[in-house]
Design goal:
The complex is a heterodimer.
Chain A (H helix, E strand, L loop, with lengths): L4 H18 L8 H24 L8 E9 L3 E7 L1 H24 L4 H20 L3 H10 L1 H11 L4 H30 L4 H7 L3 H18 L8 H8 L2 H26 L1 H6 L1 H20 L4 H20 L4 H32 L10 H4 L1 H15 L5 H16 L1 H26 L16 H19 L2 H29 L1
Antiparallel strand pairs in A: 1-2
Chain B lengths: L7 H19 L4 H22 L5 E3 L4 E3 L1 H27 L6 H18 L3 H19 L6 H32 L4 H7 L5 H17 L8 H8 L2 H24 L6 H22 L6 H20 L4 H26 L2 E2 L2 E2 L9 H4 L1 H15 L5 H15 L3 H26 L13 H16 L5 H7 L6
Antiparallel strand pairs in B: 1-2, 3-4
Classes of the chains: A mainly alpha, B mainly alpha.
């Protein structure tokens, strides 16, 4: 493989963005820009599918590795993927075209700028999941703040400025400590190359502090309780497409980071801090589920449910079991699809009725039957009904948790029930019941492009819900490898103590 | 006599200054002519310096003048940014009626003074250069003499700067008294033993220098002078004296006082931390863009000093890289400022940027890039500047400094974001003029592309700078 397929994946959206930037649209509507963006993102999606096709599921090594000299010889631009990253890349390239198709429903002004922001965002997101060097990772991880800040701030709702600032400053604050940790790792070990670091390992005495520094960044981004408060604000004020990107992909960066870096680089510290993560995850699951129950704003409700779902993810990762980690990855993919779908669904009714308050709706099933059906699928996906992807993720995570700590698993299971409660209640209030509000009667059912985007999301949710094999196959070998390395380090550490 | 070929740049610029002065006196209305000639002479000067830069270390005039990698690099970025400062300001000084013959001549003399400062290897030569540049700067600050703020800033700068020069001189005399020499290398040799006299000397000299680069707690002049001076002079203030002073900082710390790093390291760390925090916090409430950039430059100097405090070659190199990237960001920022013109009036309040992005997408985009870069967000050049500094700081295990510095960037990010918010999120105001002179456009384009594309080849500056070793 000499063709730099990963760099192409990373760069293609930027090239598209530059193309859109430098071409003038004859009409003021920038429809042609939209087609260019769609074309580019679909091409990228096909490229990533091809990547999945040629990806060797059984290998535990990093594949398609590219290594170029970058920072005067001591830090290289290194990208490569393994079973853990491949699915996130496909998720990113899959969600982006859906976002672009949904754009004209919500974005009325400065469409061209918006498309550029989304494409640049895609570059950074793919970069995060590909990078095999800590500095490169940090670069992509942080750079994503710029387009997201603009997406929330320019095209957001009433309190968009507050939310954009909160989002930006929270995540930046979390990340600066990670930068200190990355530089420290460089001076401790002499490299920031992830592959080399896996081999070398980091001395035990440094691990706890470094782990905490990384944790501060990932915890904000996940987001974990108690630093989750930026998320509901950002979600509520962001335009629909912004919420989709945020929920579907941005939140996954942290979960991915936990597996790749926290577990991979600091196994002993991860073991030490397992209880901390358990407690925070459980609080996230139970507390934010309860908060979600009380929400009156649909987007806020889904935002809180995201926090709860990500609580499951962090819980699963730190069970350090094959099922738990696989379940977490699966849950992240599933949440990526389901939350994207839910935000799009909210966008559909918001665009028609211009409110997100739940009590302004009711009885949509009789006016918008098609909408009611897809919304139901997504609701069930979110609460983890068997047959949807949500079930498999949560099931595997709970299995992993039961293996390690029964109490934790039982409390987490309560979260599943709460999840069912708030999602079903939301569905009941919005879709069923009488039509109290006469204005609702004029609402039209789904338009063609909405059917395309929403059904594009229904299919994988159901397909992988019934047949998770392809996804599990891809991640299995790499997760096993990560765990083996992890356990090996732990045993070595114990042996050295004795 | 053969020594003179090495100071050809200094000789050339001195002759140019005198020649232009003569032309100005005997030829009426020659202001524009001299302005353009000065620019050309700066370009020739740059070529002369680059021509010399391939040589090794050369000591001249009884070791009182030194040409080495550090001085060559600093002179190149000094004169290089001088050219861009002249290019961007040419239209501005015509519009606000400052196009007098003294203006370019003062700038040239100030650059000459800075070049002497950078190359000096002797307390007396250093002080000579320092005063030459300061005297020119006093006049430049109050150049718009009909303007109350400008006059005030000139006077303020003069009084405070004279005070700091006094302290500096006192420090020099103490150092001389206890080490029996004015030559930097000789001072290093003579001051092997600890004594309070030299320690006091260091403190006074550092105070004087900290004043010149407006580091906290000697920063009080900066906001007023930045705001009061004509914008083209502010740009000059923001870049050139800082390059010269930082270079002298490096020289003092690592040549005459190299043995006493346990004495000055704490001072530099304190100044650095104070500048980073103060610059970040005080900028939050500002309404005037020039004033804001003054606070921002205070905090940036804090980062540059953080690199110096490490007592390592990497630290020095990171500081030099920092100031190089900093000057490009400032050039870009001020170029944007020069473009906020409507009916022969320049606008410089933050509110004037409101909704700029709707009518001026390219200008706004440039500002966006510059501001994110100033905030140090990757993948822009400003991030790499900070990255190198922290790389050096953490190498010496100075975690406290690193963490404070990075937390200060988060605070600083707030006020940069506020400007971006005003440009992009707020309702639009009247349109600005769109026709600008070529020099301004070129400067903005070059600097923005540099900031934006720096990540593609981030070693570009580092590789040149890595030749500069002091320890």
């Amino acid at each position: 493989m000499n063709f730099p397929i990963l760099s192409s994946l990373i760069l293609l959206p930027t090239i598209g963005a530059l193309f859109i930037l430098f071409t003038k649209s004859s009409s003021g509507k920038y429809q042609s820009s939209k087609y260019v963006a769609l074309f580019i993102s679909l091409a990228n999606f096909l490229l990533s599918l091809y990547l999945w096709h040629v990806f060797d599921n059984n290998s535990v090594d990093f594949q398609f590795v590219e290594n170029r000299e970058w920072l005067s010889g001591f830090i290289n631009y290194k990208v490569g993927i393994d079973g853990i990253s491949i699915l996130f890349i496909i998720l990113t390239t899959f969600i982006t075209p859906i976002c672009i198709i949904s754009v004209n429903a919500t974005i009325t002004n400065r469409l061209k700028d918006f498309l550029i922001a989304i494409l640049i965002m895609e570059t950074f997101m793919i970069g995060v999941f590909c990078s095999l060097d800590l500095v490169v990772f940090y670069l992509f991880f942080e750079a994503g703040l710029i387009p997201m800040f603009l997406i929330i701030g320019i095209w957001g709702g009433e309190r968009r400025v507050y939310s954009a600032f909160k989002f930006f400053l929270y995540t930046l604050l979390g990340s600066v400590l990670m930068l200190v940790a990355i530089i420290s790792i460089y001076w401790i070990t002499g490299t920031t190359d992830v592959e080399k670091l896996y081999e070398l390992g980091i001395q035990v005495e440094y691990q706890n502090l470094l782990w905490l520094a990384f944790f501060s960044s990932f915890a904000v981004k996940t987001p974990m309780w108690p630093v989750h408060t930026w998320l509901p604000d950002a979600h509520v004020e962001a335009p629909t497409v912004g919420s989709v990107l945020l929920a579907a992909i941005l939140l996954k960066m942290a979960g991915y980071g936990f597996i790749r870096f926290s577990l991979g680089l600091f196994p002993i510290a991860s073991e030490n801090f397992t209880m901390l993560v358990y407690v925070l995850s459980l609080i996230a699951i139970i507390y934010t589920s309860l908060v979600a129950l009380m929400q009156e704003d649909m987007k806020k409700l889904i935002a809180y449910s995201s926090v709860a779902h990500m609580g499951f993810v962090t819980l699963g990762i730190f069970t350090m079991t094959q099922q738990g980690i696989e379940g977490s990855i699966f849950q992240m993919i599933s949440h990526g699809l389901v939350s994207a779908a839910l935000f799009l669904s909210v966008g559909v009714v918001y665009e028609r009725h211009h409110t997100r308050l739940i009590n302004k709706y009711g009885g949509l099933v009789s006016i918008m039957p098609r909408y009611a059906i897809v919304f139901m699928v997504f609701t069930l996906g979110a609460l983890g009904l068997p047959g949807t992807t949500g079930f498999i993720g949560e099931f595997l995570i709970l299995m992993g948790a039961f293996e390690k700590n029964i109490l934790v698993a039982i409390i987490a299971s309560l979260g599943v029930i709460l999840g069912a409660a708030y999602m079903l209640w939301l569905f009941k209030r919005v879709v069923f019941g009488e039509i109290n509000n006469q204005e609702l009667k004029s609402m039209k059912d789904l338009k063609t492009f909405e059917i395309i985007t929403l059904s594009a999301l229904v299919i994988p949710i159901l397909f992988f819900g019934f047949y998770p094999e392809p996804l599990i196959n891809s991640i299995e070998a790499s997760v096993e490898n990560t765990l083996n390395m992890y356990n090996f380090d732990l045993i070595n550490n114990l042996a050295s103590k004795d | 006599m053969e020594n003179f070929q090495y100071i050809l740049p200094e000789i050339f610029i001195s002759i140019s200054i005198m020649l232009f002065l003569l032309v100005g006196v005997f030829k009426k209305n020659s202001a524009s002519l001299i302005y353009n000639l000065s620019n050309i002479s700066l370009i020739i000067l740059l070529a002369l310096i680059i021509n010399l830069s391939s040589l090794d270390t050369i000591y001249l005039f009884n070791d009182s003048y030194l040409i080495d990698n550090l001085s060559n690099y600093m002179k190149i970025i000094l004169v290089g940014s001088g050219i861009f400062v002249m290019l961007t300001g040419s239209k501005y000084i015509q519009v606000i009626n400052l196009n007098k013959i003294e203006y370019p001549i003062l700038i040239l003399s100030s650059i000459l003074g800075m070049m002497i400062m950078i190359s000096s290897n002797d307390l007396i030569v250093f002080y000579m250069g320092l005063e030459l540049q300061s005297l020119a700067l006093y006049v430049l600050a109050s150049f718009n003499r009909d303007n109350l703020l400008s006059t005030e800033s000139g006077l303020k700068y003069f009084v405070l700067s004279a005070l700091s020069s006094g302290l500096l001189l006192y420090g020099c005399s103490l150092t001389y008294g206890f080490s029996e020499s004015t030559n930097f290398d000789q001072i290093l040799i003579n001051s092997t033993e600890f004594n309070y006299g030299t320690t006091f000397g260091i403190v006074f000299i550092l105070v004087g220098l900290a004043f010149k680069i407006s580091a906290v707690p000697f920063h009080m002049w900066a906001p007023d002078v930045y705001q009061g001076s004509p914008t083209s002079v502010t740009l000059f203030f923001a870049i050139l004296p800082k390059i010269a002073a930082l270079s002298v900082f490096i020289k003092f710390l690592y040549t005459p006082f190299a043995n006493m790093n346990d004495q000055w390291q704490t001072i530099i760390v304190f100044i650095s931390i104070a500048s980073m925090i103060f610059g970040a916090v005080a900028a939050i409430g500002q309404k005037n863009l020039k004033r804001l950039i003054a606070y921002s430059s205070i905090s940036h100097m804090g980062y540059a000093l953080a690199g110096l405090s490490t007592v390592s070659n990497e630290g020095i190199q990171s500081s030099i890289t920092y100031i190089s990237i900093y000057l490009v960001m400032n050039l870009a920022f001020f170029s944007c400022l020069f473009m906020l013109k409507r009916n022969d009036k320049y606008y410089e309040n933050i509110e004037d940027l409101s909704g700029l992005s709707k009518k001026h997408p390219i200008l706004s985009f440039s500002l966006l890039i510059v501001l994110f870069s100033l905030a140090g967000i990757p993948p822009l050049a400003g991030f790499f500047a900070k990255f190198y500094v922290f790389l050096a700081v953490i190498e010496q295990s100075m975690y406290f400094l690193a963490i404070i510095g990075l937390l200060a960037t988060v605070v600083a990010a707030f006020y940069y974001l506020r400007i971006i918010k005003i440009i992009y999120f707020d309702p639009e105001k009247e349109e600005y003029e769109t026709s600008h002179n070529l020099g301004l456009k070129i400067t903005l384009a070059i600097s923005t592309i540099f900031i934006l594309a720096y990540f593609i080849y981030p070693s570009s500056i580092t590789e040149i700078v890595s030749k500069i070793t002091m320890i």
